[in-house]
Design a protein that fits this description.
Blueprint: H1 14-24, E1 34-44, H2 54-62, E2 72-75, E3 81-84, H3 91-111, E4 114-117, H4 134-145, H5 149-158, E5 161-166, H6 174-192, E6 197-198, E7 201-202, H7 208-214, H8 218-221, H9 230-240, E8 245-247, E9 254-256, H10 263-268, H11 280-287, E10 294-296, E11 300-306, H12 312-325, H13 327-337, H14 344-349, H15 355-371, H16 377-388, H17 393-401, H18 406-412, E12 414-415
Antiparallel strand pairs: 1-3, 1-4, 1-5, 2-3, 4-12, 5-11, 6-7, 8-9, 10-11
Helix pairs in contact: 1-9, 4-5, 6-12, 6-13, 6-15, 12-13, 12-15, 12-16, 13-15, 15-16, 17-18
Length: 421
């Protein structure tokens, strides 16, 4: 399907919107390239119990020299630091590049008395939005209006993820690749679980981060794949999801939508938002406020992995890419995951304590070990051994911390120059 070619300021109707969303969901190209995004909780090494002031963080980022491998540094609303790598030839190159840039960034931050703690949830500090950006203030207002205020602020300010971005592949591969990304999801949620504490208390689920996502508006956070036409599924999902905020075309200021108004209702004129009809720019912006576990953006965004410290995030990146991009490994993983397909909540709540999920995870890790790039096999073998014992990276962090003291857990996952903690 081809995208509608219209100016961003052009007003669109329902049929044009369907074509535009479906036509931009996937971009044809060869399979293989990998991009990574890794978020970390920023820590003041002298006062780890307090969040680093926003002005201090933004000042440091503004003065950063370009990182050696070209990763981009951005900030999340709670002050989390995100490193986004450029697309690389494969998972090994992507990991090597991101590792290099993390070391460089850790050195800069250390000289300023700061470190990066790589965990799915902040184990010590209560949720607090630091960013004054209008988008995040509007998001917070929308979440409050639709009944998930606490989960919304926790998601924005107290979570961190590892995101793996993969090519959509040639058009005939789009449906099977989306299906495989969803099939792997519950198993990789259980394998990656690394958020044992949240705001000073034990998390209720194995993945505290996924627990937070489960409490958000399901119309924008639930899986988006329902059939064999993922582009059409994505259009249907996007048009049914409520509009979160509307930007002023002149100023760019964001205004929260305090009702549950599906995008389709704004497009058809059933409901008028901000006193006007929607444009292509409004439609594209709406897509950035949808957070399913797999999001098509021309490529595939796999958003369901917890952030985890070394050596776990490189292993998770390698396993995820291998089980989607290597045909032999993908086939073995598909067979292994079939009995637990769709068990997203159980994976986050129970994790590898569930026998069926653990069996699937062990088989998936075995498939990855056999086919992963040699440069990343040591890390993947370590993860395979961890999983074989029914543990996930969160258990390894607790063991390193010597227990569940929040301050010790934060320190155990904090990167310092040279890879020390």
């Amino acid at each position: 399907m081809t995208a509608v070619t219209v100016a961003p300021s052009s007003v669109v109707g329902l049929d044009e919107a369907v074509e535009h969303i479906a036509g931009t969901a996937f971009r044809a190209g060869p399979i293989g390239r990998v991009g990574l995004e890794l978020e970390s909780h920023l820590v003041d090494l002298d006062r780890p119990g307090s969040r680093v002031p926003w002005e201090r963080v933004t000042g440091l980022v503004a003065e950063l020299e370009p990182l050696p491998e070209g990763s981009r540094v951005t900030l999340e609303p709670g002050g989390q630091v995100e490193l986004s790598s450029p697309p690389a030839a494969d998972a090994a190159a992507a990991v090597a590049g991101l590792r290099s840039d993390r070391v460089a960034l850790a050195g800069v931050l250390s000289r300023a008395g700061l470190g990066m703690s790589v965990l799915g949830t902040d184990p010590l500090r209560p949720p607090l939005r630091l960013s004054p950006a209008g988008r995040y203030a509007a998001m917070e207002q929308h979440f409050a209006a639709v009944g998930c205020q606490e989960a919304g602020i926790r998601m924005m300010t107290s979570t961190a993820a590892l995101q793996v971005n993969l090519e959509a592949g040639p058009a005939p591969h789009w449906a099977p690749r989306m299906a495989q990304a969803h099939r792997l999801g519950p198993v990789l949620v259980a394998v990656s679980a690394c958020s044992p504490l949240l705001g000073g208390h034990p998390a209720a689920w194995r993945s505290g981060r996924q627990h937070i996502w489960a409490e958000l508006d399901r119309s924008r956070c639930a899986p988006a794949l329902t059939g064999n036409d993922p582009a059409a599924d994505w259009a249907t999902y996007a048009l049914a999801a409520p509009v979160m905020l509307v930007r002023d075309p002149a100023t760019g200021a964001a205004e929260a939508v305090r009702t549950r108004t599906p995008m389709a209702e704004w497009l058809t004129g059933t409901t008028l938002l901000a006193g006007r009809s929607p444009t292509v720019a409004d439609l594209d912006y709406h897509l950035t406020t949808l957070f399913p576990p797999v999001r098509p953006r021309g490529y595939l965004e796999l958003r369901y992995l917890d952030a985890a410290p070394e050596p776990w995030w490189p292993a998770l990146a390698a396993v995820t890419a291998t089980l989607l991009d290597d045909p032999a490994a993908a086939d073995r993983a598909a067979d292994a995951c079939a009995p637990v397909e769709g068990r997203w909540v159980d994976a986050a709540r129970i994790g590898l304590a569930d026998r069926a999920l653990r069996t699937a995870a062990v088989a998936c890790l075995a498939a990855a070990v056999d086919t992963v790039h040699a440069d990343l096999r040591p890390e993947v073998c370590l993860l395979a051994d961890l999983v074989s014992r029914g543990h996930s990276p969160g258990d390894a962090v607790l063991a390193r911390a010597g227990g569940s003291d929040p301050l010790a857990v934060l320190a155990a996952a904090t990167d310092l120059p040279g890879g020390d903690r």
